[in-house]
Amino acid sequence: MRRLIQTTTLTAGLALAMLAPVAQAGTALRVQLPADIRSIDPGVNRDHNTDAVVLHMVEGLVAYGEDATPKPLLAESVAISEDGRSYSFTLRDGVKFHNGAPMTAADVVWSWNRYMDPKTDWRCLSEFDGRGLVKVESVTATDPRTVVFRLDRPSALFLTSLARTDCAMTGILHRDSVRADGSFARPVGTGPFKFAEWKRGEFVRLERFADYAARPGKIDGLGGAKRPLVDELRFVVIPDSATAKAALVSGDVDVVPDVANADVAELKTESRVKLSVVSHMGLVGLIIQTRDPVLSNVKLRRAIAAAIDKVELVGSVTDGLGKPNGSIVPTLSAYHGKVQEQDIAHDPAAARKLLAEAGYKGEKIVMLANKRYPQSFNAAVVAQQMLQAVGLKVEIEVLEWATQLDRYNKGNYQIQAFPYSGRMDPSLSFESMTGPKDKQPRKLWDDPAVQALLEKSMIVADKAERQAIFDELHKRFLADVPMVMLYNGIAAGGVGKRVNGYVSSLTSLPRLWEVSLAP
What we know:
By secondary structure, this protein is an alpha+beta fold. The chain has helices at residues 12-19, 48-54, 105-116, 158-163, 241-250, 261-268, 298-307, 310-317, 348-358, 374-389, 401-410, 426-431, 448-457, 463-480, and strands at residues 28-33, 62-64, 70-72, 75-80, 86-91, 136-143, 146-151, 193-199, 203-208, 219-220, 223-224, 232-237, 255-256, 273-288, 364-369, 393-398, 415-420, 483-496, 499-500, 516-517. The strands form 6 sheets. The protein has a 6-stranded mixed beta sheet. Strand 8 (193-199) and strand 9 (203-208) form a beta hairpin. Helix 7 (298-307) runs antiparallel to helix 9 (348-358), helix 8 (310-317) runs antiparallel to helix 10 (374-389) and helix 13 (448-457) packs antiparallel against helix 14. It starts with 11 loop residues before the first helix and ends with a strand.
């Protein structure tokens, strides 16, 4: 989930006053941040807001495409050995760092060694040092444009892990990024914008990198064409959403990357604002404790699923923006196919029949919810009405998000209306909820056969073979009902009329390359 940490709280007047100095700059794009960033060190001391800024300055060998699969970015191509343990990256020619130096294979090796040094405190160290799915045994530059990564075992998720946004795409840096004593100074990357200034609690300013080497074609997720079309990006900290919305309408800010769903309908009627609304990879659903004395009965869980009218629920809680998805595999995923379209049909009569067969005698069922994430809370309210309509006695208990999350981690609940942050590969989506409850109480689905399928999906690289595994997992998911999956999250970005080319992304991070300002 998004974690917003602000170091300075701004009044509405101060926030808008800070925008005034750049109002006359025709090629300065002003972007709202709901909280200050945590650092400018890629993948270190980060959160969602930090990623939003840093990923305009640094790039990795691969990046997520629109279908959530990793595709070459700084790499021209990637070759995988037959044993699945060697990845050979051929680097693109002509890529420069912000200091003008050409990017070479030696820079990739230097960057990797820095990330793997525990002193760097890189968020994703454990993904590659053997504690996670794989251990990178060696990284070597075989010539100035070729880098070879050698793994201890095959992994279908190696490239996906390299591309992770919370890992800063494993961004390649020039060694000028650090001082003589090894401490981090500033990101000297290859991205379309370069670091200029950070005034803590107020704004971060980036400048256009004139020598940026863009890939041909069009934007493809966080890759593809990424030309900087404005001279400056100014990320302005405006914590209050009402203030941000007012600044957008008045023209004092150009982009609000994450407009609340409740504000979308209003802004649709505002002639001074344009909207870009897309589905993203997050999951929203009703998670079920299968070890609960009442809910351990699979017929009762199927009754719950059959009682939910997803079309009505999703339309209500997303203000008509979302579409139902009954699969853990997000609709944007390259692995979401015909099988993933299958779902338990809304059928109140069938739900009542299943309740009778389960021997349900009116036992109280408590559904946990919170108000930090309004769509999740609203889903609980609508679902409660639908479940009560078929004879289930459901009560909602509203908790602070931290308390609800603690109950989730301990497995201490019956049902929760719960949002999961997006994972870019179906294996990771299933992994977030699949596993042994005795060792990991937060897991929803404790089935050794399912776990074996999941582990296989993390090893095999063949797309058709992986698709078959995900198809089988989805069928078992519908049979066991450890969760009633409802829909994928919504990213709604608002921009001023002068802004051209802005499109919200599947990661819900702003993409400010290929975006221009009309005179």
